[in-house]
């Protein structure tokens, strides 16, 4: 009986309580966040399209990932513009939706009408354009969604009186938690769709698989529609709230201020705008110049500019809050900057382990579902522990969970299948490993987002969200650079055939993948521990 009561209390505190705290005003930003989660709908299709139809190396794809990550560093000026143009911020969502739709339209053309697209410019060039357009659209929408989460938390109660600070703080934390739930919920919907679409795909002819690829990209056009619908709903809710406040006797000017203006008037921060202009000019100049170390120069310049912006912004904070923020971003940056094995690991799983579209879609469903469950499972852990402790836990856990993949490269699945009569094969190990690793996915980011929502100056909420996001997303660019370097040191290639003749132009070679996987695992263990030790030596704390 006591166990049942304890389980009921845990479910009530971690799941049901979150549902009770949900408000209709939270829905618009959640719809925009959900659109970001649904963006993964084309992930499996993209992997197979690149592998089967494009002759791009793992190192080139890692470099392309670096360029695709650069727009997220531009979230800093976009976030500040959101603060400055608070009343008109919805326009950025519409612009972002148009760019996302254009990216999807390119891929629809490449899959459905490749000859017509090739007549304009090479397929590889179209693919690169599509890859670069998409993140620009998403970063615009994400900056507005972050601002909408602040706006979604009401300032007044049902009687028009200001809500207590504690109640507002709790609502901000809940809003950020629900934002992560919406993103992961979108990935769950995507995984379910892929499972249905790819059911039995392993037995289909190539033309039938291509038809499925095309259909998935066409379905993906719902993504920009979903985010635009969230903005439209926000407008409807504002008009409803205006009528409620009018009924309580508030005059039109006060209603307009409460609904369409931030708590404090934002003035242009020319350091942010000027620094961002330098960043854009630097990126375009180096990118178009074709300089040999262009990516490294852009990363170094970006790091310097964004670091300078952070130094300017933390002057708005009290000393204790400043030390906490600096400690937090050091630990989060290093944790997110860890390199991965790159596309070669996916190619190896497809070619050597026989992971087809149907199985990968089921694996994605497990990942998404358990990541969503992990947000609830670790809700109190995220709220009560510092980011340093959370990252320490995640580092040890992910290191241990990388061992089965390394083992499979050396034949672990053959041994386990022989011992268990074929039950514990490569797919069984992959599913078990995914089930253990998935809940850890979003744990590290929620505490930092909640801290910003609670502690950043009221008139600079969107700016703080954007600058911190720019810095942590710059860490992902560092991870892509690291991945590129590792793929240049350890060469991994899949089989490439000439589209016209069917002749093999590049043979498959996965001989160095094992060393690459071990190197990635060692780096992933050592660097976060060093970052945590550094913050301790500097006397910094983390949120």
From TrEMBL:
Instruction: Give the membrane topology, semicolon-separated if more than one.
Output: Multi-pass membrane protein
Indicate where this protein is primarily found.
membrane
Identify the Pfam families for this entry.
BT1
| Signal peptide interval | none
- Transmembrane segments annotated in the record for this chain: 30-50, 56-78, 90-111, 177-196, 216-237, 270-291, 297-314, 321-339, 359-378, 390-409, 516-538
Subcellular localization: Membrane
**Keyword presence, Transmembrane helix:** yes
**InterPro entries the record matches:** BT1
Keywords assigned by UniProt, alphabetized: Membrane, Transmembrane, Transmembrane helix, Transport
Spell out the protein name for this chain.
Uncharacterized protein
């Amino acid at each position: 009986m006591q166990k049942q009561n304890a389980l009921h209390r845990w479910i009530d505190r971690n799941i049901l309580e979150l549902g009770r705290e949900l408000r209709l005003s939270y829905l618009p930003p959640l719809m925009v966040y959900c659109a970001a989660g649904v963006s993964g709908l084309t992930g499996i299709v993209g992997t197979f399209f690149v592998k089967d139809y494009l002759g791009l190396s793992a190192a080139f794809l890692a470099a392309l990932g670096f360029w695709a990550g650069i727009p997220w560093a531009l979230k800093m000026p976009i976030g500040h513009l959101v603060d400055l143009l608070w009343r008109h911020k919805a326009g950025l969502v519409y612009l972002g939706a148009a760019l996302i739709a254009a990216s999807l339209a390119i891929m629809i053309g490449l899959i459905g009408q490749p000859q017509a697209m090739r007549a304009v410019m090479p397929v590889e060039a179209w693919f690169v354009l599509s890859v670069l357009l998409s993140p620009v659209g998403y970063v615009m929408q994400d900056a507005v969604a972050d601002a909408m989460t602040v706006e979604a938390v009401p300032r007044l109660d049902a009687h028009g009186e200001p809500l207590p600070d504690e109640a507002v703080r709790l609502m901000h934390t809940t809003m950020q938690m629900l934002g992560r739930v919406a993103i992961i919920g979108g990935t769950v919907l995507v995984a379910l769709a892929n499972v249905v679409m790819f059911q039995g795909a392993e037995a289909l002819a190539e033309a039938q698989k291509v038809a499925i690829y095309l259909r998935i990209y066409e379905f993906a056009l719902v993504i920009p529609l979903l985010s635009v619908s969230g903005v439209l709903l926000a407008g409807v809710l504002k008009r409803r709230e205006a009528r409620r406040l009018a009924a309580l006797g508030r005059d039109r000017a006060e209603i307009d201020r409460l609904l369409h203006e931030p708590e404090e008037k934002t003035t242009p921060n020319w350091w942010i705008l000027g620094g961002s202009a330098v960043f854009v000019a630097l990126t375009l100049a180096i990118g178009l110049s074709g300089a040999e170390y262009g990516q490294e120069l852009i990363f170094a310049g970006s790091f310097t500019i964004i670091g300078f912006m952070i130094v300017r912004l933390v002057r708005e904070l009290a000393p204790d809050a400043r030390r906490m923020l600096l400690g937090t971003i050091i630990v989060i940056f290093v944790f997110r900057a860890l390199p991965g094995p790159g596309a070669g690991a996916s190619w190896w799983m497809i070619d050597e382990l026989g992971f087809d579209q149907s199985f990968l879609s089921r694996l994605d469903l497990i990942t998404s579902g358990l990541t969503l469950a992990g947000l609830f499972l670790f809700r109190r852990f995220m709220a009560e522990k510092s980011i340093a402790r959370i990252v320490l836990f995640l580092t040890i856990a992910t290191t241990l969970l990388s061992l089965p993949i390394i083992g499979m490269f050396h034949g672990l699945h053959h041994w386990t299948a022989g011992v268990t009569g074929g039950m514990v094969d490569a797919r069984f190990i992959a599913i078990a490993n995914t089930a253990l690793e998935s809940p850890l996915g979003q744990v590290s980011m929620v505490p930092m987002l909640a801290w910003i929502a609670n502690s950043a100056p009221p008139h600079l909420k969107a700016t703080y969200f954007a600058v911190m996001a720019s810095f942590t997303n710059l860490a992902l660019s560092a991870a892509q650079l690291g991945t590129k370097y590792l793929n240049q040191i350890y060469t991994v290639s899949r089989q490439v055939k000439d589209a016209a003749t069917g002749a093999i132009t590049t043979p498959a070679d996965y001989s160095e993948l094992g060393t690459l996987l071990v190197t990635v695992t060692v780096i992933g263990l050592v660097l976060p521990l060093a970052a945590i030790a550094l913050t301790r030596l500097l006397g910094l704390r983390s949120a």
